[in-house]
Amino acid sequence: MLDWIDPRFDVGGAALTLLILVTSVAAALRASTAKARAARDRLVATPGGRLRLYRGAIRVSAMLAVAAVAVVWTDGVDLADLGLRAPVAGDAVAAGLAIAATVPSSLVGAARFARARRDGTPALGVRGSTATLARVRFLHAQTPAERRLAVVVSVCVAASEELVYRGLFIAAGVGLLGLDAWAAALLSLAVFGVQHLYQGWRGVLGVTFIGLLFTLAYAWTGAVLAPIVVHAVFDVNALVLVPWVLQWVGRRPARTAAPAPAPAPTAVAAAPATAATAAGPADGPITLRRAVPE
User: Fold this and answer.
1) 8 A C-beta contact, residue 168 and residue 80
2) For the whole prediction, is pTM greater than 0.85?
3) How many separate domains does the chain show?
4) What is the largest CA-CA distance in the chain?
5) Could you say which residues form the signal peptide (predicted)?
6) 213 is in which domain, residue-wise?
7) CA 73/CA 294 separation, integer angstroms
8) Which residues, 6 or more positions from 128, have their beta carbon under 8 angstroms from its beta carbon?
9) How far is the C-alpha of 102 from the C-alpha of 48, rounded, in Å?
10) Fewest C-beta atoms under 10 Å: which of 7, 50, 60, 271?
11) Apex CA 85: angle with CA 81 and CA 88, to 5°?
């Protein structure tokens, strides 16, 4: 697997690859700052702000994909080195089904998280999930128009990121750094994780693990198309389906504990008659005995 990658980068190809790498890392570092987070929150709080954010993501993804594919016009790099070749059909379907099968479990997890947060009940990982959710909430589609455009964003981002992180950067690790293909894949995977610094360290770990699944799909099928499709499914799930589940569960009434049954009435035992009580008030006033002898 990955043995088809054998590029020979010239100066132009190396320079373009380095430019994409530096630009991507710099953008990731900038996007992870508190100032950038505040700017995103202000943008999505304005009418149509999230739609403008989505359109910007589509433009950036298109430019990134074009820059990655442009490397093949330099000497020594062809389309196959970037994974732009026909996948093995059976392997592609198997890889897609195996990885996409994790989507339902993520929706179930989102529903459980939303219920625990709504009801105020303790649940494993709620605090960490809440922190990560706060960092990515600006991406979550909330309206029908946003959901439609979020699907387009998912496809564009999946195509550009897979062309860069599974296609170009693995090829660059082999052709420029002289690494084994799997070592180059792991190095590219690390850069892919850094690209998502804005999600916090928990988000970086989660994205890196998912990126490993994309890398395995790439190696298994021999083409970048398979991870593009699976990546798009994951992004639609993250941008559209999970936010919808969170909204739906949040609108439902919170569960309340059933009230405890009232205790059954019990008979009060009658006090035993004493000489003082039996005599009645006619025999004289009733006095309380002191606890100590007189």
Assistant:
1) no
2) no
3) 1
4) 125
5) none
6) 11-251
7) 116
8) 202
9) 32
10) 271
11) 120
Please choose, from the candidates 113, 107, 214, 74, the residue with its C-alpha nearest in 3D space to the C-alpha of residue 158: 214
Residue 92 CB contacts under 8 Å (≥ 6 apart), including other chains: 221, 223, 225, 226
The four Cα atoms 116, 121, 127, 133 give a dihedral, to 10 degrees, of 20
Q: Is residue 90 a part of any domain in this protein?
A: yes
Token output for 25: 């890392």
Question: At 56, which amino acid appears?
Answer: G
Structure tokens at 223: 């083409």
Using left for φ > 0, alpha for ψ between -120 and 50, and beta otherwise, residue 222 falls in left
Could you tell me which residues come within 8 angstroms of residue 238 by beta carbon, excluding any fewer than 6 positions away?
A: 136, 139
Query: For residue 253, which phi and psi values (nearest 5 degrees)?
Result: -65, 145
Cα–Cα distance between 50 and 140 in angstroms, integer? 9
Q: State residue 8's pLDDT score.
A: 93
The answer to the question of residue 151 being in a domain is: yes
Residue 221 counted as domain residue: yes
Q: Element (H or E) spanning 152, and its range?
A: helix 144-161
Tokens read off for 72: 């093949």
CA distances in angstroms from 173 to 80, 216, 228, listed in the order given: 15, 17, 20
Average pLDDT per block of 10 residues along the chain, 294 residues long: 91 96 96 95 96 98 96 92 84 66 64 60 54 87 96 97 98 96 97 95 93 92 90 90 81 59 52 42 42 43
pLDDT of amino acid 228: 93
Contact assessment for residue 110 and residue 245, using Cβ atoms and an 8 Å cutoff: yes
Spatial CB neighbours of 272, under 8 Å, sequence gap ≥ 6: none
- Cα of first residue to Cα of last residue in the chain, in angstroms, is 104
How much is the pLDDT for 53?
Answer: 97
Instruction: Give pLDDT, residue 14.
Output: 96
Domain-located, residue 270:
no
Q: Provide the 8-state DSSP code for 62.
A: H
